[in-house]
Amino acid sequence: MDKCVMIALGGNAIKQPDERGTVEEQMRNVDVACRQIAEIAKQGYKIV
Q1: Which domain holds residue 35?
Q2: Average of pLDDT values for 29-45?
C-alpha cells in the first residue's frame, strides 16, 4: 500500500499572527509551506 497524506493549508499557514497580511508575506509563507510539502513528497508520500 502506498503512503498517502492529505494536506490542507489554512489561514494560519498563509498569514502568521504577527504579520500584516501583505501579498509579499503571504507569498513567502505559501512558498515555505510548498517547500515543506515537497519534502514530504520526496519521502515517497502521495499527497492529496
Answers
A1: 4-47
A2: 97
